[in-house]
Amino acid sequence: MTDKKLLLLFVRNPKLGKVKTRLASAVGPEMALEIYLRLLHHTLDVSQALPVHKLVYYTDRVETNDLWPDDQYQKRVQPQGDLGEKMEAAFAAAFAEGYSSVVIIGSDCLQLTPEIIWRAYIELTQHDVVIGPALDGGYYLLGMNKPHPELFRNKRWSTEHVFPDTLLDIQTLQLSYALLPRLSDVDYVEDLDGTRLS
């Protein structure tokens, strides 16, 4: 176990009608929930063996004896606010608790691999920030070695502007950064083209 590395996982409690709402408009809420559960299982698969501390942040309430083993994953409820405020608070808490490299991922990327996540930590040995851009203009991973709250502020969340605006902030702050491969998030039915869900 690498003591000072933390992986934050932002997930939604898997409830019918509450997950993948954009996808649900095309495939229905039952199928959207089924797809989201597959995404959660994939996120577990790619994170479980990594030699870092792991912390799952749920949207609504902490689940015990669920998909995430209690002995491997710390569990908390996401802070209040919009997505930026939630992530800013989660990073701030992690650094306040003594972690020196903190990476956050969501649960929307079937193309994510353990190797890509581990590469983020390697990049953080040489860069201030690491970011994994998503094809939709957002990002699927963000990591840093100390708090940079500006990266979470004044963003148009869930739009194609998130990644370019975040990158502009990184450059304005004159931080060194590394880019990971550009991957696809699953938000719309088109994102499932050619993707096996089982």
Automatic annotation (TrEMBL):
Pfam families: DUF2064. InterPro entries: Nucleotide-diphossugar_trans (IPR029044), Trfase_1_rSAM/seldom-assoc (IPR018641). Gene3D superfamilies: Spore Coat Polysaccharide Biosynthesis Protein SpsA, Chain A. Coiled coil: none annotated. This is TIGR04282 family arsenosugar biosynthesis glycosyltransferase. It comes from Pontibacter saemangeumensis.
